[in-house]
Design a protein that fits this description.
Layout: H1 2-19, H2 22-46, H3 50-61, H4 74-80
Helix pairs in contact: 2-3
Length: about 80
């Protein structure tokens, strides 16, 4: 059981260290801004709920592409491109 908690301790320590790195901060900020813009755009153009819009933005940004959501309007498709 102790190795399990030690792994989480090391993960937390590494994450905290990474958050102080200026390059990681810039990439994290860019990712948050892109997710915000995507969420607002899909909510407005496609009429999806906030959670669905955020979900689609995360799946698209992560290049996973599950295929359970897809934009149906021309503007939404152009934005996705």
């Amino acid at each position: 059981m102790l190795p399990f908690f030690y792994t989480f301790y090391k993960f937390g320590k590494s994450t905290w260290k990474a958050l102080k790195d200026p390059e990681f901060e810039a990439i994290g900020t860019l990712a948050i801004v892109m997710l915000g813009i995507g969420t607002l755009t899909y909510h407005g153009l496609e009429g999806w709920g906030w959670i669905d819009s955020l979900y689609f933005s995360v799946v698209t940004l992560a290049t996973v592409g599950y295929g359970d959501f897809a934009p149906h309007t021309e503007a939404g498709r152009l934005f996705t491109i």
